[in-house]
């Protein structure tokens, strides 16, 4: 035998012993069904109906017979995949930055809802490291410093105080957003910390003032908790059946429509209005000009605080309406006065208020008739009632049942008021301007209308308004001096004007 051949047979493989090669099979054998059946038998899996596998199946997978349960499981799986993607995006977005942005608010599954064991059901924020909390309690030595030589550190050390000030920011009010300084060594100087502390204290006081103002004011729709309580009491007492809604708003009050009930003293109309005077003084700041110099309320006004002046303002309108009603002037009937709420009869029909004179469309003859009525009402108001409207215009006159009705007389004053004639001249200007624009040829000029209403004969001359106003101011001055010499005192308005009953202020 050849020696080289023997060496080749006895040579071993460097990769170890080589097993016998698998017998080659043809393509026909691979495609045969017998071979496929043999492979199935060698790698057979237990059947799902096997009783030995059934308990394992029931423990590992929940019941999916219900479509709702299956949908909830799919939704939970989708939410978890979404949260995983969100965490990856967050990690990619933040990178190695010291200031990180968290997407936790956008997670679909709560951290402890996503956990598999009850041991993990803890608040994830509790596991974070607090950079301001020392590993060991650090106490300041009694002598006030620590260390020796060049390494002495006192309690006034800048870094130590800065870290303490940063930690003290956690004691600020919850509404003060101090941010999150995790992972950052923040140091606040004493000056900055004291400024922040003072700012937070000022903001707390300002917030408390705004809250108190909101609770005790009626600036917005005039219904604060106390006003709402008064309205509920009227309904419970039977004075009102129900309150329907707001029909008018103004700078001094808000008007609500209501269905009338009953009173022992007098009948209540089927439809009434509640005029709620606003208790804030920011919208109508010149109230004092109309009530401070009114001789009927002068002494009482000087003894009241600004909020109680609003109640006096409502009482003033009640007495003015009662005086006008006695003179036969078309105006609302007063039903009841409770603090700053005045209940009056409703001018209109079936919840629809009468239109203002500026909104109504009248023919030429009806407009002339309206002008004559207004002229007569101004004369009656001045001569019979001894009042000046002081805010008469097309906005405060209603057209109802072919007549002109006067409303909003809370600012009305007597002619003896130090500015009474000036208010009357302004009313005459408003009336004359409105009817002249509506094409009423009979409308007099403001000067002639003033003389017609007052009965005075102030010379018009060249119709110089400055000279005319100078004459009016001189008359007011002489009238005021005459009243002061007579020593005229404030008289009780109830003795002359009468009026509906006043509810006692038991809630004060």
UniProtKB/TrEMBL annotation:
Named cofactor requirement(s): Mg(2+)
Sorted UniProt keywords: ATP-binding, Kinase, Magnesium, Metal-binding, Nucleotide-binding, Serine/threonine-protein kinase, Transferase
EC class: transferase
Residue ranges of every copy of the RIO kinase domain listed in the record: 212-455
InterPro entries in the record: Kinase-like_dom_sf, RIO-type_Ser/Thr_kinase, RIO_dom, RIO_kinase, RIO_kinase_CS, Ser/Thr_kinase_Rio3
The keyword DNA damage is assigned to this record: no
Catalytically driven reaction(s): L-threonyl-[protein] + ATP = O-phospho-L-threonyl-[protein] + ADP + H(+); L-seryl-[protein] + ATP = O-phospho-L-seryl-[protein] + ADP + H(+)
Protein name: Serine/threonine-protein kinase RIO3
Organism, as annotated: Ameca splendens
Species lineage: Eukaryota, Metazoa, Chordata, Craniata, Vertebrata
Protein encoded by which gene: RIOK3
């Amino acid at each position: 035998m050849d020696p080289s051949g023997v060496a080749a047979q006895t040579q071993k493989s460097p990769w170890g012993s080589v097993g016998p090669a698998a017998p080659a099979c043809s393509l026909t054998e691979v495609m045969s069904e017998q071979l496929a059946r043999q492979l199935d038998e060698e790698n057979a899996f237990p059947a799902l109906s096997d009783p030995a596998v059934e308990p394992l199946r029931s423990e590992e997978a929940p019941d999916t017979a219900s479509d709702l349960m299956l949908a909830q499981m799919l939704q939970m799986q989708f939410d978890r995949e979404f949260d995983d993607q969100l965490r990856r995006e967050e990690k990619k977005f933040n990178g190695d930055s010291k200031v990180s942005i968290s997407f936790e608010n956008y997670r679909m599954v709560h951290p402890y809802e996503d956990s598999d064991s009850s041991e993990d059901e803890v608040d994830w924020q509790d596991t974070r490291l607090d950079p301001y909390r020392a590993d060991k309690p650090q106490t300041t030595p009694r002598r006030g410093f620590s260390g020796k030589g060049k390494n002495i550190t006192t309690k006034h050390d800048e870094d130590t105080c800065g870290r303490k000030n940063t930690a003290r920011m956690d004691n600020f009010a919850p509404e003060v957003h101090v941010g999150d300084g995790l992972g950052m060594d923040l140091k606040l100087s004493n000056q900055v910390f004291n400024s922040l502390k003072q700012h937070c204290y000022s903001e707390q006081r300002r917030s408390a003032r705004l809250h108190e103002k909101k609770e005790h004011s009626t600036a917005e729709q005039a219904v604060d908790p106390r006003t709402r309580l008064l309205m509920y009491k009227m309904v419970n007492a039977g004075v009102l059946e129900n309150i329907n809604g707001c029909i008018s708003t103004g700078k001094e009050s808000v008007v609500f429509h209501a269905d009338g009930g009953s009173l022992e003293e007098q009948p209540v109309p089927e439809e009434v209005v509640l005029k709620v005077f606003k208790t804030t003084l920011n919208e109508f700041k010149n109230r004092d000009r109309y009530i401070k110099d009114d001789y009927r309320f002068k002494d009482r006004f000087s003894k009241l605080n600004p909020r109680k002046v609003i109640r006096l303002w409502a009482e003033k309108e009640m007495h003015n309406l009662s005086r006008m009603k006695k003179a036969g002037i078309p105006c609302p009937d007063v039903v009841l006065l409770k603090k700053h709420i005045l209940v009056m009869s409703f001018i209109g029909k079936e919840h629809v208020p009468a239109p203002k004179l500026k909104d109504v469309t009248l023919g030429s003859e009806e407009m002339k008739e309206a002008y004559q009525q207004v002229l007569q009402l101004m004369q009656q108001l001045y001569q019979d009632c001894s009042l000046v409207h002081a805010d008469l215009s097309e906005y405060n006159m209603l057209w109802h049942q072919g007549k002109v009705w006067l409303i909003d007389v809370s600012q009305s004053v007597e002619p003896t008021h130090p500015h009474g004639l000036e208010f009357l001249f302004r009313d005459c200007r408003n009336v004359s301007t409105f009817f002249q624009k509506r094409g009423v040829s009979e409308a007099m000029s403001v000067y002639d209308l003033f003389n017609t209403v007052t009965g005075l004969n102030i010379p018009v001359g060249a119709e110089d308004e400055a000279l005319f106003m100078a004459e009016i101011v001189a008359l007011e001055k002489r009238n005021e001096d005459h009243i002061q010499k007579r020593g005229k005192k404030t008289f009780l308005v109830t003795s002359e004007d009468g009026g509906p009953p006043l509810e006692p202020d038991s809630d004060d």
